[in-house]
Amino acid sequence: MLLDFFKDKKVLITGHTGFKGSWLTKILMDAGAIVTGYALNPKTEPSLFSILKLHLNMNSVIADIRDYNRLKQVFDEFQPDIAIHMAAQPLVRESYVYPKETYEINVLGTIHFLECARLTPSVKSILNVTSDKVYQNDDSTHRFIETDILNGFDPYSNSKSCSELVTETYSRSYFKYSNQSVSTARAGNVIGGGDFSNDRIIPDIVRSILSGQELLLRNPNAIRPYQHVLEPLFAYLLIIKMQYENKDFEGAYNVGPSEEDSISTMDLTNAFMKVCGNKMKYQVDKGQGPHEAQYLKLDSTKIRLRMNWKPILSIREAIEMTSAWYLSYIQNQPTEKIMDDQIRLYIEKYNRLNSVKS
To answer: Cα–Cα 20 to 30 A to 272, which of 114, 123, 143, 282?
Structure first.
């Protein structure tokens, strides 16, 4: 029911070659949307974007979000109905090494995106995807709500805080007085098939399995709002649809799992290895790495109350689905069928849940 809205809609996605961007691009194209993507080439080899061969069925523009003139040209030529901003430097540890580049991509890139959307009257619904790490985090057990202070600690987190503030300024200064709606989505840590990024726990586990080397586990006791990638993606689509139809729904939204499904990195590691049947050994990295928060939970009450959204998958189901994709990949079996089945099952659960509510 939700996906029917996107049939024949023209959707521009920045960051479409990334992990989440590839999943979202596939979902939208399968729903009948006309998709143009704007991003750099995939940063990992392999990449989900390449595995799915998404470039064969869409207009994939390979360019830098910091190139305003090129981005504006794409907006002008495509005239999208919907614009989704996912292009980013998304890694905390990499942001410590490349702070200037991180701020340029995550802050200046947001400005370029919003400016192009503002100057393109065809765009009616705008979404900036940020992060659960935008909040000022003192490692307390506090569950963050949307009105908490935005002041991320490290360059990545702080650049995403800045991206939120830029979006709020554009909303107050421009979009408030137009028929264009803009929102931000602050999602939890996602897992799912096809992520090959560095310094993320599931890809690190998979690389250790493939190489036969011992896993080096960082921050094993860190609590994170882990969720399957389909959860935030369908929340993004819901926000886009709702604010497209009614401007009153625009705003900032946390998108996280149920409180009981926020678990430690150690628990996630053990559960994943148990499900995939691997007894790989690991050791805890006792090195003095850069600061990372030990405790992070989101309160998603706002989107639940305003849009009747709630997480559908338990952390157990999320781990099982993720494991199924990687096992298929490791065994050289078609992974797109796994994705099709997982998306179909998720849609069935989503529609069943919403039909009960209605």
So the answer is: 143
